[in-house]
Task: inverse folding
């Protein structure tokens, strides 16, 4: 309710009220926005530094050699040669707490990609480039929207788990799970990324 009277402006404030409000407003910093970056469907539109740009521009991630055990006896800790990358295990389901933190945006979704409208192979290429670029930028959690397809049988959604298990993404992805309903439900996935090494 606006107060009317002598010495008050259109909003009903006195010069003293304006002075106090000016001091309060000057001492407050606005909260940092935590919205996810939108990625255009044509490709990852991220500003990358020179080392990350080479990764996103088509440099293939180094292949991870599979370790072979010759005997069933317990082996001593494997010695890795300098310069050779160690083998990574396949991504797993997210821990329930981590999924809950991402769904509630306590851990921010730092980027998202929508794979609607892509064919199976084009979507795989887009996803691989997107995840590699996001890891290069130091992102930890992203949202991948695949869509559900007609009657729940989407081609991209069905191939998603296979793509995540591929050796090319093992060094990038640490885990994934179906997204919360507000982020797309069965037509989207939360993907957590490994730290850069």
Result:
């Amino acid at each position: 309710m606006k107060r009317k009277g002598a010495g008050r402006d259109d909003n009903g404030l006195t010069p003293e009220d304006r002075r106090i409000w000016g001091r309060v407003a000057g001492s407050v910093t606005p909260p940092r926005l935590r919205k996810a970056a939108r990625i255009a469907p044509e490709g990852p539109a991220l500003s990358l530094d020179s080392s990350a740009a080479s990764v996103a521009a088509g440099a293939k991630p180094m292949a991870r050699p599979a370790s072979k055990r010759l005997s069933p006896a317990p082996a001593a800790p494997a010695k890795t040669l300098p310069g050779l990358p160690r083998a990574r295990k396949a991504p797993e389901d997210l821990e329930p707490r981590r999924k809950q933190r991402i769904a509630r945006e306590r851990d921010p979704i730092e980027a998202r990609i929508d794979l609607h409208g892509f064919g199976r192979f084009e979507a795989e290429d887009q996803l691989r480039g997107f995840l590699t670029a996001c890891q290069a930028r130091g992102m930890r959690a992203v949202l991948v929207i695949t869509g559900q397809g007609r009657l729940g049988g989407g081609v991209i959604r069905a191939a998603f788990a296979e793509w995540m298990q591929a050796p090319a993404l093992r060094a990038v992805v640490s885990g994934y799970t179906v997204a919360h309903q507000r982020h797309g439900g069965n037509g989207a996935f939360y993907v957590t990324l490994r730290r850069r090494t």
